[in-house]
């Protein structure tokens, strides 16, 4: 995105934050007019299906939106926890993530909502809440739209509405810095900058005596502490005894957080100094600790997801590249794991494979073609297949021609051809193949989803959905096992 | 000199003649007449006399006769001496007048001047005293004031002074004698003023105290109302204490200690009670409120722990979790928190053992081997770390709560799962793939819990079972003991389990349980055990050596044929390195008076009350046994074997046996 777009977008979002209802229309238009679609953005059909998934009618004004704005539009309309959470994560992510969300993410999330499984909710909430705290400490009442911005946009918004010069400088530095700097700014930088700004103001006030300055500093500290638990303290809360204020913080803090546990510990000491220390610094370090705990837990959960993904990829027998990518990510850092889950698993490097026959007469020849599927020797662009979740059943597979995007390997009258979708369920079933162990004992055999019992077979270099009944010439039992066994390799 | 002499004469004359003036008149005339000097004053003398008095003589005056000239000067003169002397002169003769003009006026004027100077000095002193007094009294010392007489000045002081004591003293002085008035002006006013000042200071001090007290009270009220989150505005802090109490009672959470205490304090008619509430009572009540909330939280935490404990007990396969929860509940707030935060996740591992209902087959654990999941014992001499393959993390069922999944601790994300191999349902440790199917296949439910027998683990319609070939599989109901994780299957462990597991309930301590880990010394292994009735105290030590059986040596006097401890003697004699491991259990001697144990090294320890516990070794032992052992005339050993020159010796109740190293012969010496 260009700088100009960015600016327009954020001001749009900010405007929305103020004018609540106007937001839906303004924001997408601002961006839609300027940003071109990324390559391989979601198709109209993807968008229609995505909208259908959550019971939204995909009106023309929705369908012309860019992927990002389409995600935003669905986020506004969605009610499911996981759908909304995953939309937030995609929206704050890259274009590829938004496209992927429209293509598959929303469906998975909706399935999780139906099954009452929570996965993205925690991550989305953690991101939202960190921003909420940061906005509150900056004296900005956070709107829902502000909270789902990515970290950089958020830093920009904080720069725009900075409550003091040091905070403004810190926001600018974060905006110009990397992802880590932005995260750091939201988690701690904005708090320390705000504290410094407030201290400057106190120091600059020559009229006040020491006691007044101290009182004011304590008051500021309370406001900052309350921001951690997303509370704007009342005047009464600012003057009440420390023990009561800590009790308020404790009650506002979420169960299971260190912020809450530390508050309880401070309360149990019944020691004024401990209570003061909690308000001044303890709550902030506890908050940071909570963040790290959350990061660690997310890392563990991510690794588990990746482990399961790899297991599925292994069991599918058609995803050696995905397995290799997952293994590489698992050997890396938590960030690598996270990136692979968000992006890597959808990239061509993970999905594109070649499919080679193991049939004695055509051993090592590639499944290929532009109209009819054939088996032929030698490399070529048409030998590359993007293996995506089955159009009719996500636990099976569909094979998209890399040379001919949006064209899929389907059986049509038992003949395997390469065709574009006609939008029918029949096409989706015909373009879906389920994998099982190779009948010859090695490799993989692909069963047609629409013609169960018939397996993808090379027969005289033609490719069919065949059985061994002998009903048709290609159904001959002769060499059937070898003809239906394929080797999936890296393209 | 001359002038003085003249003056003296004139004075004498004047005084001498002053009383009878008429008589004196004639004499000077005669003197004058008799004198050679001109009888009248010259013009220059008149001029000097006039000037002496500061008078510019007119021409007419200069023409006057001496007497008239004196009178003219007298009229204008002010000095008292001058006038008096002039009066004397003009009442006297012409000569006296002439003399007065010539010199008398001069000396009289000098006297006047001297007098004037004296008067001026006194006046200055008086003026300055008044100035000082005025300043002291806080009155502006303007010229009119300070030249007033003492009395008038004092009057002014009474009117214009600000200090009450100064005014009072002035009033007293006003009516007093002149000396007292002077004294007042000189000192009294100062004293009075100092008293005024002291009064002011005292008064001021009193005022400051009051102000301070007021401010302190306001601050206290301000602090007190903040307890109920009311901002201490000036209006509120200036309220009387009882109104502040009402403010607090209104602002307090209904039912809170603060509210109750405020209402209670209000009922009191004693102001001090109100103040005490504002000063301290409100905070004490507040702390009670906080403590109540914390107590509630602690109770809620305990309830959580109790729920976990309950679920763990009812669930049947998480005895460690149940026990940890019990321990936490027995502990304080911190133990409860620690359990919730951390510990509950650390006690999830258990092992599953084939139960021993049908014989001594304990020690066979559900474990993952290279050969799949089997139910087999581990090695008699396990390698370090063995037992992890027979340990499982018991977690909530992947297919939902209420049942469980068993995760491999060695391979995270791998679970004990069922699969269909095309012929029948098998059991294996498989990686999770996140699908619903896998979750279901990896979920096990506990249907039956029989103390002593164990639990059943149902997966789907069938039960986890041990198949005839020792592999785990699915079949009819099969009971498992849930045991401690990281199990070993050493002979000592199996011996122990076979003996004590038949009463096994994983949720209560066994009758006998290990006290510390098993010790390894080459081929010898031993382990201490404790009884449930005396935890932490070794009850016996089991020994095992490769190729042998397990034999315990008990602590204390033993159950049957009670006698001194054999284990202590064994250890005193350096234990298994010296004597070898026990090869028999402790047995009663033939007369049932004591016990004995034989050791692998060819020795024995005999224990009886009257002789103690002693080892008999080698050839001496052989000789002794050949005579009938404890039944022989020698009786029980009364010492361990000791070295003697050229051999070794054991003493017995009735004699001794000496062993000659050179000949290899053991000789009996009965007691004579």
UniProtKB/TrEMBL annotation, chain A:
Organism of origin: Amycolatopsis melonis
What the entry lists under InterPro entries is as follows: AbfB_ABD, AbfB_ABD_sf, DUF312_ALF, TAT_signal
Q: What is the lineage of its organism?
A: Bacteria, Bacillati, Actinomycetota, Actinomycetes, Pseudonocardiales
Q: Indicate yes or no for the key word Signal.
A: yes
Keywords annotated in UniProt? Signal
CDD domains in alphabetical order:
beta-trefoil_ABD_ABFB
Name this protein carries in UniProt: AbfB domain-containing protein
Which stretch is the leader sequence?
A: 1-22
**Pfam families, per database record:** AbfB, ALF
Q: List, for all copies, the residue spans of the domain called Alpha-L-arabinofuranosidase B arabinose-binding.
A: 380-488
Keyword field contains Signal: yes
Which Gene3D superfamilies does the record associate with it? Answer: 2.80.10.50
UniProtKB/TrEMBL annotation, chain B:
Could you tell me which species this protein originates from?
Amycolatopsis melonis
Q: Which residues form the Alpha-L-arabinofuranosidase B arabinose-binding domain?
A: 360-450
Per the UniProt entry, the signal peptide is: 1-18
InterPro entries listed in its UniProt record: AbfB_ABD (IPR007934), AbfB_ABD_sf (IPR036195), LGFP (IPR013207)
* Protein's UniProt name: AbfB domain-containing protein
**Which key words tag this protein in UniProt?**
Signal
């Amino acid at each position: 995105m260009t700088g100009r777009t960015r600016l327009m977008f954020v001001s749009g979002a900010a405007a929305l934050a103020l004018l609540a209802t106007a937001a839906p229309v303004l924001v997408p238009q601002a961006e839609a007019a300027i940003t071109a679609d990324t390559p391989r953005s979601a198709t109209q059909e993807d968008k229609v299906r995505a909208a259908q998934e959550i019971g939204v009618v995909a009106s023309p004004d929705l369908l012309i939106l860019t992927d990002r704005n389409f995600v935003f539009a669905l986020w506004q309309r969605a009610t499911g926890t996981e759908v909304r959470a995953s939309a937030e994560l995609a929206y704050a992510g890259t274009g590829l993530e938004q496209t992927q969300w429209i293509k598959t993410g929303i469906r998975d999330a909706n399935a999780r909502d139906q099954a009452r499984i929570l996965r993205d909710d925690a991550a989305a909430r953690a991101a939202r809440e960190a921003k909420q705290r940061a906005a509150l400490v900056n004296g900005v009442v956070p709107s829902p739209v502000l909270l789902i911005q990515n970290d950089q946009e958020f830093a920009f918004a904080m720069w725009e509405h900075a409550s003091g010069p040091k905070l403004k400088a810190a926001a600018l530095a974060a905006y110009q810095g990397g992802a880590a700097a932005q995260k750091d700014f939201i988690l701690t930088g904005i708090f320390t900058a705000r504290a410094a700004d407030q201290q400057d103001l106190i120091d600059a006030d020559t009229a006040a005596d020491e006691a007044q300055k101290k009182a004011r500093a304590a008051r500021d500290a309370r406001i900052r502490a309350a921001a951690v638990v997303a509370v704007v303290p009342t005047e009464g809360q600012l003057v009440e005894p420390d023990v009561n204020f800590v009790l308020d913080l404790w009650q506002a803090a979420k169960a299971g957080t260190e912020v809450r546990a530390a508050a309880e510990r401070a309360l149990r000491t019944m020691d004024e100094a401990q209570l003061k220390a909690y308000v001044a610094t303890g709550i902030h370090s506890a908050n940071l600790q909570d963040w790290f705990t959350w990061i660690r837990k997310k890392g563990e959960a991510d690794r588990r997801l990746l482990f399961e993904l790899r297991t599925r990829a292994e069991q599918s027998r058609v995803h050696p590249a995905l397995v290799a990518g997952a293994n590489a990510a698992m050997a890396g850092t938590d960030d690598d794991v996270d990136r692979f889950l968000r992006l890597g698993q959808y990239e061509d490097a993970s999905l594109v494979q070649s499919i080679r026959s193991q049939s004695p007469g055509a051993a090592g020849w590639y499944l290929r073609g532009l109209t009819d599927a054939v088996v032929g020797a030698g490399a070529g662009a048409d030998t590359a297949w993007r293996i995506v979740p089955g159009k009719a059943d996500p636990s099976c597979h569909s094979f998209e021609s890399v040379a001919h995007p949006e064209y899929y390997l389907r059986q049509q009258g038992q003949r395997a051809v390469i065709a574009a979708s006609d939008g029918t369920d029949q096409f989706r079933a015909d373009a879906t193949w389920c994998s099982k162990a190779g009948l010859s004992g090695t490799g993989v055999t692909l069963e047609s989803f629409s013609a169960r019992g018939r397996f993808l077979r090379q027969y005289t270099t033609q490719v069919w959905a065949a059985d061994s009944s002998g009903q048709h010439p290609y159904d001959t039992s002769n060499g059937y096992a070898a003809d239906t066994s394929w080797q999936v390799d890296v393209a | 000199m001359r002038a003085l002499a003249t003056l003296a004469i004139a004075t004498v004359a004047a005084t001498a003649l002053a009383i009878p003036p008429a008589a004196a008149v004639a004499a000077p005339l005669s003197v004058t007449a008799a004198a050679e000097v001109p009888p009248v004053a010259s013009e220059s003398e008149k001029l000097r006399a006039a000037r002496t008095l500061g008078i510019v003589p007119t021409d007419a005056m200069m023409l006057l006769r001496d007497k008239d000239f004196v009178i003219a000067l007298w009229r204008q003169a002010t000095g008292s001496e001058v006038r008096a002397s002039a009066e004397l002169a003009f009442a006297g003769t012409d000569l006296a007048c002439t003399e007065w003009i010539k010199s008398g006026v001069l000396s009289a004027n000098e006297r006047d001047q001297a007098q004037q100077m004296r008067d001026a000095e006194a006046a200055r002193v008086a003026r300055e005293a008044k100035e000082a007094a005025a300043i002291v009294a806080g009155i502006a010392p303007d010229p009119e004031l300070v030249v007033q007489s003492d009395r008038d000045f004092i009057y002014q002081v009474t009117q214009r002074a600000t200090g009450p004591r100064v005014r009072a003293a002035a009033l007293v002085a006003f009516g007093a004698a002149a000396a007292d008035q002077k004294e007042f002006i000189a000192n009294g006013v100062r004293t009075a003023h100092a008293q005024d000042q002291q009064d002011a200071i005292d008064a001021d001090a009193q005022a400051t105290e009051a102000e301070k007290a007021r401010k302190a009270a306001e601050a206290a009220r301000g602090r007190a109302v903040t307890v109920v989150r009311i901002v201490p505005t000036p209006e509120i802090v200036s309220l009387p204490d009882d109104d502040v109490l009402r403010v607090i009672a209104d602002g307090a959470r209904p039912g809170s200690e603060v509210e109750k205490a405020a209402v209670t304090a209000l009922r009191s008619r004693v102001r001090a009670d109100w103040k005490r509430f504002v000063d301290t009572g409100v905070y004490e009540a507040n702390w009670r409120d906080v403590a109540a909330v914390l107590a509630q939280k602690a109770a809620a935490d305990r309830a959580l722990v109790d729920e976990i404990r309950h679920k763990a007990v009812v669930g049947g396969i998480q005895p460690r979790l149940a026990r940890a929860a019990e321990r936490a509940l027995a502990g304080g707030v911190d133990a409860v928190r620690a359990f919730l935060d951390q510990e509950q996740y650390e006690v999830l591992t258990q092992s599953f053992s084939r139960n021993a209902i049908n014989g001594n087959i304990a020690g066979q654990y559900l474990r993952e081997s290279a050969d799949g999941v089997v139910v087999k014992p581990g090695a008699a001499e396990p390698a370090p770390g063995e037992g992890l393959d027979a340990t499982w993390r018991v977690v909530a069922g992947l297919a939902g709560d209420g049942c469980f999944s068993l995760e491999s601790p060695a391979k995270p994300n791998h679970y004990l799962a069922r699969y269909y191999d095309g012929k029948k349902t098998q059991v294996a440790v498989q990686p999770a793939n996140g699908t619903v199917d896998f979750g279901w296949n990896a979920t096990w439910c506990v249907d039956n819990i029989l103390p002593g027998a164990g639990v059943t683990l149902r997966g789907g319609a069938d039960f986890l079972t041990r198949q005839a070939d020792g592999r785990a599989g699915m079949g009819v109901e099969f009971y498992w003991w849930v045991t401690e994780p990281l199990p070993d299957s050493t002979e000592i462990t199996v011996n122990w389990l076979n003996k004590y597991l038949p009463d096994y309930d994983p949720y209560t301590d066994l009758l006998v349980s290990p006290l510390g880990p098993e010790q390894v010394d080459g081929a010898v292994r031993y382990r201490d055990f404790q009884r449930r009735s005396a935890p932490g105290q070794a009850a016996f030590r089991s020994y095992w050596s490769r190729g042998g059986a397990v034999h315990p040596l008990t602590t204390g006097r033993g159950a049957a044929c009670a006698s001194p401890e054999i284990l202590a003697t064994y250890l005193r004699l350096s234990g298994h390195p010296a004597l070898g491991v026990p090869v028999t259990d402790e047995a009663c001697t033939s007369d049932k008076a004591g016990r004995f144990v034989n050791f692998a090294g060819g020795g024995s320890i005999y224990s009886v009350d009257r002789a103690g516990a002693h080892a008999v070794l080698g050839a001496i032992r052989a000789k002794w046994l050949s005579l009938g052992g404890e039944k022989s005339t020698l009786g029980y050993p009364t010492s361990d074997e000791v070295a003697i020159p050229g051999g070794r010796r054991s003493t017995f109740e009735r004699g001794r046996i000496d062993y000659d190293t050179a000949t290899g012969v053991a000789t009996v010496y009965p007691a004579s």
